[in-house]
Design goal:
Layout (H helix, E strand, L loop, with lengths): L1 H29 L17 H35 L5 H33 L1 H11 L1
Length: 133
């Protein structure tokens, strides 16, 4: 039983490490593997319609992250108030997920804002795109 608990904890930590960085890793890959770029310079290569679509979808994902984090927080409060004791590992995992959702929400919001900015300022987008080569 102790070995099973340790195995679950190890698996959970590996999954948490991946999930905390999955959005950043995806963006980095889409931008050529150079890491997170200031203002998502890779967006400068997209057209107006693509930027609008990206803005809408990223904004939606940010809203979903906020809703999911709020739902988890309410569930955690319910557990603590009405359901008695819960293993600390469960609460830590839930709190970690809330923190992950908050980080991802911020990244989705930044992506949406950057897409909107480049859509509204095509001259800046063209200049950045040219400087990238």
């Amino acid at each position: 039983m102790l070995a099973d608990k340790e195995h679950r904890r190890t698996d959970t930590k590996a999954i948490e490490a991946d999930s905390r960085t999955s959005l950043e890793q995806m963006i980095s890959l889409l931008q050529g593997g150079q890491g997170a770029a200031l203002a998502d310079a890779g967006l400068t290569r997209l057209g107006t319609e693509q930027l609008d679509s990206l803005h809408r979808h990223a904004s939606h994902q940010a809203r979903l992250c906020r809703e999911r984090a709020n739902q988890l927080l309410w569930l955690m409060l319910y557990w603590m108030e009405d359901c008695g004791r819960h293993p600390p590992d469960d609460l830590v995992a839930s709190a970690t997920q809330v923190a992950t959702l908050a980080q991802e929400r911020q990244r989705w919001m930044a992506l949406a804002e950057n897409a909107r900015y480049y859509q509204q300022h095509p001259d800046v987008a063209a200049k950045v795109s040219r400087s990238l080569g």
